Amino acid sequence: MSNRGTYARPIALLGSLGLLLLAQSARAAGATPNHVRDVKVHTAAGAAGATDTDIEVVGTEAPSFIVRAEDGGKRLIVELANADVAGAPAALTESKGSVTGVLTQAYKTDSGSMTRLTVNLATDAAYRVRADGTTLHISLSKGSPPAPVAAPVVAADNVDSELKGVRFERTAAGKDRVIVALTDMPTYALSTTPSGKVRLELRGTKVPDTLLRTLDVGGYRGALKTVSTFVDAKAGTAIVEIDRAGDTQGEVSIEEGRIIWSFEVPKGAQGQTVAQGASSAVRHTVTVAREEEVATTRVETSIHDADGTAEHLTGGSQAGFTSSIPMQAAGRYTGRRIDLDLKDADIHNILRLLADVGRVNIVTADDVSGSVTIRMRNVPWDQALDVVLQAKTLGMSRQGNLIRVAPLGVLQKERELEIARHKQELDLAPLETRLIPVSYASAEELQARAKDLLSSRGSLAVDERTNVLIARDVGGNLNHVEELIRSLDTQTPQVLIEARIVEATSKYLRDVGIQWGGDGTFSQATGNPTGIAFPSNVTVAGGAYDGQTPKAGLSPISPTVAVPNFAVNMPAAVGTGTGGAIGLTFGAIDNLLNLSLRLSAAESSGMLRIVSSPRILTLDNREARISQGTLIPFAQVSAQGVQTTFQEAKLQLLVRPHVTADGSVSMHVKINRDEPDFNQTSARGDPTILKREAETDLLVMDGHTAVIGGIYTRNTGRNLDQVPFFGDIPILGVLFQRRRASDSRNELVIFLTPRIVNRAEALGR
């Protein structure tokens, strides 16, 4: 017996915990009862010399079951809901592998009937339970499972655990897995809903609001379509429900404190490994037309034997066969491997021998004859058949389990006749006329795409008033055309683009200045001559001023002084609403000696924050624009005179979105934010325009926000104006200096958020 799959846990570890590995209850009243026809026990050599035991419970309906361990892992209890015993043996007492006996009993319950299987075990064993159609398989293996896994804690029904996450992944081994992460391991059960969905119930489990969702995984074309998580408030149960493509219930196991729910992936979808933890709608690929095969001269076989053993054939014109070791087939040949040693063997006998080995039916035409000498070892039988047919210029056609062998010329002629008959039937088939309404697209645009599916007799016209396609052709082609139109005529995704332009500006300015000076007169007129012949009269006065020099505050009587006589004239820029100044005047009798002093200082700081948020709604692959601003007039002088032109200063969002197959949004975006600056003007007083622009291409997930750009600038400055030499004197130098400091910062950040407003209608197909 095969040892594939991951076993859950040693029964000895789970016995006292009463783990409900898989539980499925018959919920619908009046459901068809399951009749247990037979119970079988098989053994086979496993890995490392261990013995595997498989118990088959054969019924008439898909089983609803509960499994638990008792008596310290020495007894396994399997209960089948809504089931009775109809032909199964009441007891199996022969010891096989780990099983010493199986007791089968039927009970009456309030909800109907129930069948219990009591499996007595000789040693500790790891087990796995799975349903295969109407048969329940209970696989046991001696010893511990292949990889050590921490023993799960099975909580009672009233103990709360919390759901941490539910995600979907596809493994490289070709399995779709739903991984359920929990804080504590609760009691759980597996069931099937009346609609055919499988449900995992986690009792006493809380579900965060962020996990109440549905994962759309149908786009991966695997075993699953959707994975939904919700809560049964009355029972206090968290439910993970799967809508599946087939009818398998999957396999549930526990690994590292997580519940792993695995499903086999169909062969056509095993080429992609994916992982998903959030909802995403994926556009499906749809096959609208496929040409039928008329006939084939050779069909590659893909027959699998039940036991997978190889056969050894030897001899002259006759051959016998004995069993050999199993081998893995290579390439496209998958049949049972055999050895052939034949000399001058009749082709009919070889074909009969291969038909017996491959368990197929082979019909040979009358004109097939000849003998073949073959010596092959370890070759798949279907490859041997292919080689024999090539050696004798033969071909084969296959229908189900029947293979017809004939010369290649005969099969080719049959193929040509079949093609001719098929064309003749197509030419004679009656034409139909079908009106195909188009809802979202333009019928004229779809006309060109649908014409390729018409035959030479078909035609396609458009009624523009009703937006209807008028198709005329044979019925089969019309079905293909209609399927193509239905697949293309879907809602175009609508995307809401929201941009946020955040601009923050901060400024700081400090200016400290000083003005001082005076005058003195020594002369006969003022009565204080110098007393020397030369110079007898001396006049000293400051001269660092002009008509625009600030001099307010030097006189309490007059707001200004005509001649302030400043020797140092370095004032700060003060005025109405800016800074402050103070003036001092000292004088002697009769104003023979005067001293004036004026201190000025200014400091300013400020912060400005501007948020602009343009948004616009547009269709997929359609360019959209939204703008707001003003037109600034400019005067231009030319030979024709003075002309006035206007320059735009506006906020604008220009975007062209494209919705990808996985539901993301690819965009080409251009954002402008222009504004007039009246602080910086031209010689004629016209304002300049401050321009801010970002243009880029990006890919953003639906509903996510991306920072598409940002600009940060900082300007700092320090200025020192002073009188040479005197300004460098320590301490006293401040009387000959003016100090200025400035710091300005500006930051611009642009955010972009796309949202698909009709996601379910446009992508959920």
Can you walk me through this structure?
- The longest helix is centred in the middle third of the chain and has 21 residues, at 408-428.
- The radius of gyration is 47 Å and the shape is elongated.
- Strands 33, 34, 35, 36, 37, 38, 43 and 44 form an 8-stranded antiparallel sheet that branches. Strands 12, 13, 16, 20, 21 and 22 form a 6-stranded mixed sheet that branches.
- The chain contains 7 helices and 44 strands.
- Helices cover 10% and strands 49% of the residues.
- The model is unreliable at 1-30, 144-159, 275-281 and 294-331 (pLDDT under 50).
- The chain has 765 residues and is mainly beta.
- A hairpin with a 4-residue loop joins β18 and β19 (237-244).
Tell me the radius of gyration. Answer: 47 Å
If you average the pLDDT, what whole number results?
78
Query: Total number of helical segments?
Result: 7
| Secondary structure tally: strands | 44
Name the helicity range. under 10%
Termini gap: 42 Å
Largest sheet: 8 strands, antiparallel
- Helix/strand-derived class? mainly beta
Low-confidence stretches: 1-30, 144-159, 275-281, 294-331
The shape, in one word, is elongated
Q: What share of residues are in beta strands?
A: over 45%
